[in-house]
Amino acid sequence: MTMDRLENIDACVFDAYGTLFDVNAAAQHCAAELGDKWQPLAELWRGRQLQYTWLRSLMEEYADFWQVTGEALDFAMEALDIHDDALRERLMELYLKLDAYEEVGGVLRRLRNGGMKTAILSNGSPRMLGAAVDNAGLGEVLDAVISVDQIKVYKTAPAVYQLAVDQLGVAASAISFQSSNAWDAHAASNFGFRVVWVNRFAQARERLPGNPDIMLDNLEPLPAIVGM
Fold first, then answer.
1. pLDDT attached to residue 181
2. CA angle at residue 78 from 72 to 83, to 5 degrees?
3. What DSSP designation does 150 have?
């Protein structure tokens, strides 16, 4: 774990999936039905979900994250020879109520109590993000929940990161951006944010433009890092 301080931060902006919310939770909650396929399904589902956002952006064929998530699940289920329409429906509904990581609520409250602006900036559709925030009880500790659906292009497009600057009224250099996705952390740094890479899964460092300022394995130290 790398520890340091970020100076002159006026807002903390968070990626949602994998950073605040556990993307494996939906499949894990269906472990009884999936057996030893639950983790391969979770990993394949998430991998295809991300790939489809990047490919659709390059193809200029935007579909919202709910549709992309469903298409990725369909691929994963077929690839693993799982054919169960009721299970598919349950998995999709569970994706609206992903578990928040245990430290998330406390960290956001400490930031807000210290006067920090807080927001989510996510690929998620407004419906998906609203459901996840409500399920985790985070609505009162967020100033904004920002979806790429406003501009209909996915991360890592610079225009996505600009949404946070515009909606919060804070310069990029005064925003601390937190993501568990290394590719997102690098892109946000390349855009001009200060970046905390929440490396929950002990991933190798990406070879991409940008360079995260700090690496953590969870969000617990963040308030101290930004001066709370």
1. 97
2. 115
3. G
Strand partners for 216 = 198
Go through 135-153 and write b for each residue having 16 or more CB atoms within 10 A of its CB, e for each that does not: ebebeebbbebbbbbeeeb
Domains detected in the chain: 11-21+100-225 (3.40.50.1000), 25-95 (1.10.150.240)
User: Could you tell me how many residues make up the chain?
Assistant: 228
Give, to the nearest 10 degrees, the angle between helix 65-79 and helix 38-59. Answer: 130
pLDDT digits (tens, 9 = 90+) for 83-93: 999 999 999 99
Question: What is the Cα–Cα distance from 212 to 198, expressed in whole angstroms?
Answer: 10
Q: What is the pLDDT of residues 80-132, one digit of tens each?
A: 999 999 999 999 999 999 999 999 999 999 999 999 999 999 999 999 999 99
For residue 132, what are the CA distances in angstroms to 13, 96, 98, 104, 198? 16, 6, 6, 13, 19
- Per-residue pLDDT tens for 30-47? 999 999 999 999 999 999
84 catalytic? Reply is: no
Which of 15, 22, 184, 213 is catalytic? The answer is 15
